[in-house]
């Protein structure tokens, strides 16, 4: 799509070199936007995820839609009309507009049904190739360890639900509140006060307890695995 930029294979080679020489550095692929009708086929999606995995990358970030607005949209559509004229009608339907070289009155993002379909495929491929779709966060070794681990799981799940067009805010805000606790989540769980944390309901409490190890270790302290 863009002239004078490194090819995808060169970028994969850079990731491979980084991971071979400095494995402690996190490196991954930002596969966004997934350009409608150009890079959204099942074959291209799988090839991107597969090659990302083969490069040794730690993650792949993806976004199913090309944003469209103002001058950027007019520039893109002008070149689309010149180079791929058969696709213009598909874009008019996907972004709900009628092409004009002088203005753009369509939507900023593609239809929600289209985005959900692309995101569903991408999540399935990440699961198939065991490749994270978000960057793993830093986890400290103090009382925040359990908090951050649980918060990360909740926030990742909230992100997945949001990308699929499902209810997500409860898990998102529960995760945010848990990561901001001033004490260990293990201590809160031991006191049976998890639902005193804002946005933690029965479902989220069950999730937290399933992912916490509240058995005591040799020192008598609660631990998290």
Would you write up a description of this structure?
By secondary structure, this protein is mainly alpha-helical. Among the domains are: 8-67 and 110-128, no CATH class; 144-211. The chain is built from nine helices and two strands; from the N terminus they run αβαβααααααα. It has helices spanning 8-21, 42-54, 70-83, 88-95, 112-128, 144-163, 169-179, 185-190, 202-211, and strands at 28-31, 59-62. It has a two-stranded parallel ribbon. Helix 2 (42-54) links the parallel strand 1 (28-31) and strand 2. Helix 2 (42-54) packs parallel to helix 5 and helix 6 runs antiparallel to helix 7. The longest helix is centred in the C-terminal third of the chain and has 20 residues, at 144-163. It is globular. It starts with 7 loop residues before the first helix and ends in a 14-residue tail after the last helix. Residues 214-225 have low confidence and may be disordered.
Question: Descriptors for this entry?
Answer:
225 residues, mainly alpha, two-stranded parallel ribbon, 9 helices, globular, disordered C terminus
Low-confidence spans? 214-225
By DSSP (H or I, 4+ residues per run), the number of helices equals 9
User: How much of the polypeptide forms β-strand, as a percent range?
Assistant: under 5%
Q: Can you summarize the main beta sheet?
A: 2 strands, parallel
Reading the helices and strands in chain order gives HEHEHHHHHHH
Helical percentage: 40-55%
Radius of gyration: 22 Å
Helix/strand structural class: mainly alpha
Strand order in the sheet with the most strands:
1-2
DSSP summary, beta strand count = 2
Q: What is the terminal-to-terminal distance? A: 45 Å
User: Which of globular, elongated, flat, extended, rod-shaped describes the shape?
Assistant: globular
**Average pLDDT over all residues:** 92
């Amino acid at each position: 799509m863009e002239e004078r930029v490194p090819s995808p294979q060169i970028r994969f080679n850079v990731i491979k070199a980084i991971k071979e020489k400095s494995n402690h550095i996190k490196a991954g692929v930002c596969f966004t936007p997934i350009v409608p009708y150009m890079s959204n086929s099942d074959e291209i999606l799988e090839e991107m995820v597969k090659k990302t995995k083969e490069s040794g990358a730690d993650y792949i970030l993806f976004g199913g839609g090309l944003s469209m607005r103002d001058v950027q949209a007019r520039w893109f559509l002008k070149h689309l009309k010149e180079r791929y004229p058969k696709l213009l009608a598909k874009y008019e339907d996907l972004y709900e507009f009628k092409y004009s070289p002088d203005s753009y009155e369509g939507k900023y993002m593609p239809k929600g049904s289209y985005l959900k379909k692309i995101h569903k495929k991408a999540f399935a491929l990440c699961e198939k190739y065991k490749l994270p779709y978000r960057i793993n966060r830093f986890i400290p070794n103090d009382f925040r360890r359990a908090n951050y681990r649980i918060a990360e799981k909740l926030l990742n799940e909230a992100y997945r639900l949001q990308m699929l067009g499902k209810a997500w805010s409860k898990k998102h805000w529960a995760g945010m509140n848990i990561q901001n606790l001033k004490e260990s989540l293990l201590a809160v769980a031991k006191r049976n006060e998890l639902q005193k944390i804002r946005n933690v309901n029965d479902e989220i409490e069950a999730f937290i307890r399933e992912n916490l190890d509240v058995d005591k270790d040799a020192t008598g302290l609660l631990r998290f695995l």
